[in-house]
Amino acid sequence: MSTHPTSEYDTKLESVLEQLRRCQQEHQLSSCSLCQQYLACELRKEYVKVVYESMSKGDTGGFEF
Q: First CA to last CA across the chain, in angstroms?
């Protein structure tokens, strides 16, 4: 079983994901899409950005899967 080291992108993703989970718990929501602030939420915008960065590993263009 091989494991690869956690990248800075994965670490950042885990951090923002934990923030989203806390926010959902505080607002008693099972999903961000149920929130009234869904489209204006800065935390959600940051999450989308960090997910993209994690998938692209900082490169522009294609994704590494």
A: 19
Q: Is there a domain that residue 3 lies in?
A: no
**What is the per-residue pLDDT across 11-20, written as a single tens digit (0 to 9) for each?**
999 999 999 9
Is residue 35 domain-resident? yes
Answer yes or no: is 1 within a domain: no
The residues, ordered by sequence, that sit 6+ positions from 29 with a Cβ below 8 Å of its Cβ are: 35
Counting as low any pLDDT under 50, the low residues of the chain are 1-2, 65
**Residue 16 lies in domain:** 8-55
Amino acid letter for position 46: E
Q: pTM here? A: 0.73
